[in-house]
Amino acid sequence: FCLSLRASTACSCHGKAQYCRADHLGLYCINCQGNTEGRHCENCKEGYYHQRAGDNCVPCNCNMAGSQGPVCNNEGRCTCKQGVYGDKCDRCHDGSPVTASGCEPLRLNCRSRNSGRLTYNTEECLPCFCNGHSSVCSSAEGYSIHNITSTFENGPEGWRAATAQGMNPSQVQFRWSPTHKDLEVISKEDLPVYLFAPASYLGNQALSYGQTLSFSLRLERGVRRPSISDVILEGAGLKVSASLGDLRTVVHCGKKITYTFKLDEQPGSKWKPQLSSTEFQTLLRNLTAIKIRGTFGENGRGYLDDVSLVSAKLGPGTPAVWVEKCRCPAGYDGLFCERCATGYRRRFPGQGPQSPCDPCSCQGGTCDPETGGCYSADEISNLQMCPKGYYVNRQQSNSCQKCPCPEGEACYVIPGTQEVMCARCPQGTTGSRCEICDDGFYGDPLGEYGPPKQCQPCQCYGHVNQNAVGNCDRRTGECRKCLSHSTGPKCENCEDGYYHSYPTEPCQACNCNRQGSVSTSCNDKGQCKCKEGYDGLKCDESTCPSCFNPVKSKVRHFSLLSVFNTGFLYQIDTEKQLQDKLVSISQSQLREDRKMEAMLTTVDGIRNKDQQYRTEVSEIRKLISEIRLKLQQAKRDIQQAVKDAVTKSRSRVEKELRPRLRELEEKEAQQRATIAGMINDIDTILADIANLEEIRKSIPNGCYNIPPIERP
Description:
22% helix, five-stranded antiparallel beta sheet, alpha+beta, extracellular matrix, Jelly Rolls, coiled coil, laminin egf-like domain, 3 helices, Laminin/Netrin_ECM, disulfide bond
């Protein structure tokens, strides 16, 4: 016999199975979970990988067109076809699309205005931004699609409610709904209330150009008529807005509607006022506010959900082919021509990357790329030259003073203010004297809060938006804008209801069964804490009640015994199987005999029924013959009756109706003659009347002495 045992240390299932069985080789696990397989659930199924046994198996996600199959190594790297590269075999070196044949030659490296993807149609090409310094660009490599989302699973995620000017009205209620997983805003006043996006959506969002901002909105009560400022974008002193729909319509009440807005200057995107391509990308590069209108009119109520901003980031994943790589002219450098090249400076300092770059006017040929300040004293030929790391102090007899910068770094003096500025700061530092850490770095370069500490990258395990300003504390390194439901000083933990095995992994939802789990939390393997009577990774499997514990204890003791007597158990199992087989054969033979007897009884019954049916059919045939004879007789009787009735009708017509008809015809002829005579009389009378009228007209008017016509 085969005995199922509760999984224990003897089973060694790496936490991926609940039970095991014994065979001639020993114990093996059954029903491996988490996409694992093997006697001890130590391997991942095809298309999944892990670094070591016991870890969660995650999908390889190999690109089917660019890879040789769905299998990857224990680091998630797929086997690519010739010419294709990337961990998932989803990229070509020249940016061309990956096909089943590998990388196709790219005839035109152009970004489509409609989809952002590479296209051969020049009419669809997006204009190059390049901060206005170049009109030649191509699709940049190494960028993947990154969606900034808000699903409101565990809270408002930094969203807030206010008026368009940022004020907080007193008659406004704003809350997160744990039941519907959305944001609710209620206003008793007529003034519109907007929902403001958090910092993760703001800052430099230039990589979202040409992509979409989408959200779901459900409105209740209020006027619900769209306005020209239902969605607002602000940044770099620019502002655009759009409507939720036709201004002549009414937004549906109580219906959840998804709205999508394309982030570009095209007329079809409906942003007002219409900006140029450069202006719109400048706005996105310095985005300071995204506002979504939540209430429409007095007592208005709105619900926001499923917000998504399509962007891009450096790293593996689905390529974001809309990110541009500019071919910069002389004097410019950087992916977007955002920097002045060595030997060039900003024409208008402080106006950002769109300011033109001009050659340096210093004798040494180089200068500060932002201010144009010359390094050391090389701009004044009659002064002594100071070594690198020193500057000419004009207030102290033109002596050389050490630069207040990190060791060995050059500096310069700003004309007019005489302020000393460091020429270049080490990576991770910024400020006039390199005294503060740059965004994404932390430390204390000057030792203002204790011993000096060099600026080093913030350790947020990849769970922050690198483009967002202030994503970590510059002094302590504490991460402030954790994404993907991560939390903690280093985004190393997951929010309640989420888990991961390693800090670098994204947090996944526990999805604990509400009925069977104690709470929504789980451990780093995704195991939920189950109530009594429930089991499984998500507590969605029923188990034996506590009253069965004594039996389980006996089975557990028996399992320990079976480990030392595997061979004996195997013999017992084999013998038991043979006995069961013999009993099964005997029972099968007995069942077959009973079936045969039942079949014979059924055959006899069928024969009797057949004879009975034959007799009944014969009687039915006789009855049908009798009915046919009666029908034929009835037909003959009906035909004779009809014939007699027709004969009688003809006789009556000849004897009674025809004389009457002749009499009527004669009367009609007489009446016709009378009418004809009357007509003749009328014609005669009309003729006489006409003659009299002629006579009357011939008589003259007035009185005349006319002898009478009559004779006396």
